[in-house]
Amino acid sequence: MVGPTASLTPLSRADGSASYQCPSTGSNILGSVNAPIELPGRRDALRPEDATVEVFVKPGTAPGGVGERYVEGIIKNMLTKLILGREKGYARRGVVITLAIVGGESVGRGDSYLTLLPALLHTALLALLSASVPLSMTFSATVLAVDASGKITREPSPKEAATATSLHVFAFSSNGHLLLSESQGPFEFKTWENVHQRALAICHGTLARSSDGDVAMAEDVDGQPLEGALREVVEDKIHLDYAWKIDAP
Amino acid sequence: MVSPLILLPGDEIPSEYLPSTNSAPLRLGAGLRLLSQPSSNPSTPPSHVISATQSALLSTDTKRNAVSLLSTPNRRYIPTPGDLVIAQIHHSSPDYFHCMVTPQAPQAMLGQLSFEGATKKTRPMLKQGDLVYARVLSIGLGAGAEVELTCVNPATGRAEPGGLGPLTGGMVFDVSTGLAARLIKASSSSAEQQDGVAGLVVLDELGKKLEKAGGFEIAVGRNGKVWVDCANGGDSAIKATVAIGRCLSTIDEHELSPTDQRKLVTRILREMKIES
Amino acid sequence: MAPAAAAAAQPAPPSLSLPPSQFARLQPHAYLLAHLSPPPSSNQPSIRANGRAPSQFRVTSANTGSLTHTNGSAVVRLGDTTAVCGVRAEILHTEDIASWSVSRPTPASSSPTGNKRRKLTDSTAKLSAESENKEEDGDDESQIQDFSLLVPNLSLSTGCAPGFIPGAPPSALAQSLSHQILTLLHSTRLVRAEDLRIWYQPPNLGPEELERHNENEQMDVDAPQGEVDLEKNKEIKAFWVLYIDIMIISLAGNPFDAAWAAVLAALRDTKLARAWWDVDNEMVVCSDAVSEARKLSLRGLPISSTFCVFEADAASGWRAVVIPDAEEEKELDDSTRKGIQRRWVLADPDGYEEGLSQERICVVVDKEQDGKGKTVIMKLEKNGGWAVDTKELKTLVDISAQRWEDLKQILEQC
Description:
The complex is a heterotrimer.
Chain A: E1 5-8, E2 16-22, E3 27-37, E4 52-59, H1 66-82, E5 94-103, H2 117-130, E6 139-146, E7 152-154, H3 158-163, E8 166-173, E9 178-187, H4 189-204, H5 213-222, H6 226-241, H7 243-246
Parallel strand pairs in A: 4-5
Antiparallel strand pairs in A: 1-2, 2-3, 3-5, 6-7, 6-8, 8-9
Helix pairs in contact in A: 4-5
Chain B: E1 6-7, E2 27-28, E3 32-37, E4 47-52, E5 56-61, E6 66-70, E7 84-92, E8 96-100, E9 108-111, E10 131-138, E11 148-150, E12 165-167, E13 171-174, H1 177-188, H2 202-209, E14 217-221, E15 225-229, H3 237-253, H4 258-271
Parallel strand pairs in B: 2-6, 9-11
Antiparallel strand pairs in B: 1-5, 3-4, 5-6, 7-8, 7-10, 8-9, 10-11, 10-12, 13-15, 14-15
Helix pairs in contact in B: 2-4, 3-4
Chain C: H1 2-9, H2 20-26, H3 28-36, E1 60-64, E2 72-78, E3 81-93, H4 100-103, H5 105-125, H6 129-135, H7 142-146, E4 150-156, H8 172-188, H9 193-196, E5 197-200, H10 207-210, H11 216-222, E6 235-250, H12 255-269, E7 271-272, E8 275-278, E9 283-286, E10 294-295, E11 303-311, H13 326-338, E12 343-347, H14 351-354, E13 359-366, E14 376-383, H15 390-413
Parallel strand pairs in C: 4-6
Antiparallel strand pairs in C: 1-2, 2-3, 3-6, 5-6, 7-10, 8-9, 11-12, 11-13, 13-14
Helix pairs in contact in C: 2-3
GO molecular function (chain C): mRNA 3'-UTR AU-rich region binding
Protein name (chain C): Ribosomal RNA-processing protein 43
Subcellular location (chain C): Cytoplasm; Nucleus, Nucleolus
């Protein structure tokens, strides 16, 4: 299993940015975050004590459509819960997240965005970290496909996703909460529970709560948990930035 | 010394990383939050943990009993009261000079009389494009608030620390905010360390090498601006100024060790044909 | 309602007391919380500000066929949220599809054999939907998506709720809902591609076939087994494209459930005229006989239910408290049953409740898929918080299954 590759702060002008490639789904996302910024006069600021989060998804390989509005809504709803918009300097200001799909299979009209969603979420998270936007916790996300025979494929390629019976996206917080679950296609709740277990193993690796041997094996197949992979990306970048301090005698 | 600790949002700081002296209150820097742990037993007082909200390197200062986070160094400058900045006059109105601190942010206000010894008659007549070395006085509250600068310490009426006020001559170089902060740290502590403070020896090295050429004046603004002037340099003044700028921007782009910094200074001075 | 009663009981302390409607506006969170957690002494059940129990849906009514100029239409009311849906069918010639000739080899090579198979079974089982269900799976259905044969568009009409001003571009909410309906139409495969195809049956030059010219439809049904060869020459000449326009004329929360129920009811009501390819005129001809028009045969009856989570602590996102991790959360949950409840999952939230909650859950279930009466989830969506985990989702799926029964009755009666 080839893990995702990511880099922090590839763009110098934005407050924070990140690029993220997931080899198995083929997605390649470039994200930037500007925060805190002054929003143009908004009289309709709904919550004056909080920051306004805005998410823009720009398809780079296909014409834009209504699908982006939908996925923007999901990402925004999830991140708003994690961003500490009441910290000093953030209230009534904006956190603007722009995610550009720069490579990989494009999403056509009426197609689901589910295969791209984990990559978009990870890019947004890394860009927020790069912009030092205060967050209450981090998260990791994955997408799984279930085919007609009940086989679970982790991070399916667009072709695999097209033939799958159901697609499931999960995001877990660093504390193990289920932050997001998006599933489509006919499935039963039992299937969902299995996929949920597998997704938790992919994201966290720890299997404290599952006692059966089956899932423990899956952990080996999945290699390094995503949570750790993302943490490593961030730690490497900080090591690089503060080499003068860390390496100092 | 404990190994460096890198935190991600939501991570708690282990107690062994906190300064151990309990006499003074612990100071928390930006990006850290004191969270209360709701205890299941209502009779015991809730315990507290300190958790990070940003991905950053933890830095502790035992002398000041402070703990803070070193986050992404090269981000956009956001004014904080007390910061020294280099601002450029954009235009003036009867009471204020309107200055640019960063191109992204709205203009900051600098009172016409907030200079050392300024009265209505003696205030400096600054034109568009002039530079001032100023301190951030206040940043206001809420969205759309105005940032106010000053060139005097309001308590004493003096330009403290020395050098606040209009910058004449010289040249301004843009550096990253991270390097600017390191330069300020390096110049504010006078300790004669072999490896310099904050891993920077470039200014000391330049100072030594350019002593013969008349030395130079430097002002570093937190907003990522460095002003350099070699007023006494005579013929080589411009060359020396450009050489300093080149040294700084090279260090900004590449992470250089103190030895490499010394080599860089020598190489650039040789290339620019400045005798040292 | 408790505050209403309290206000009535105290006739005239004017300075400090507020009528409930003003309290609701000034302190919306406290108002809803007061309803949901009545003091234990009052012995009142936990009830929402709108008088419903937490898992109770609003009164739903549906009406079909009210728009005469559409092929199918429906009005669905979910409390004060009203959605109108009209289905308009238009003909799309295969010549006008740019990718048709390119992609044609695939359907052409697969469809004759597919049809052959179908014919063989049809001759015994006739056109029963159930038998077709298995035969028609697979590639054929991709035509709906490839050629965009279903075009839903949702608009939130001016004045449906405060803040919708005339002349504004489609809001992000409207665009997002349009997309959700389209994705759900595709992923549930509700409409059969076969219903949308307009065929051309070349006449068999055999003398006895001449008289059957232009009676394709009849021939489709009655073709004896010996004429199976004919099917090889059958050709798709055009498609019906269904323009599904949804208008939310009144928005009081939960637009998706209302919109989807309206789409479902309108599609159940949709009738397509009999159409065939006329070789002489080289055009598609439709029959104007109402008796010849046929209804769409939909796959299953997916029904959506939306929930939101109301947190007791309004400032939970701000308060400097350690967020318990998932394990601790479970223990806390068990302890809450005895003591104070911290959060409520509210079914079919109205606009007031939507404004006070962040976490949303949407479940689309179907019990008719495969005809086994089992609850099949077509879509499960939750985001915006961490209150709902596996256990809660299981309960919500059960509630949605119950809701399916209720809504099925409503849709069948209309």
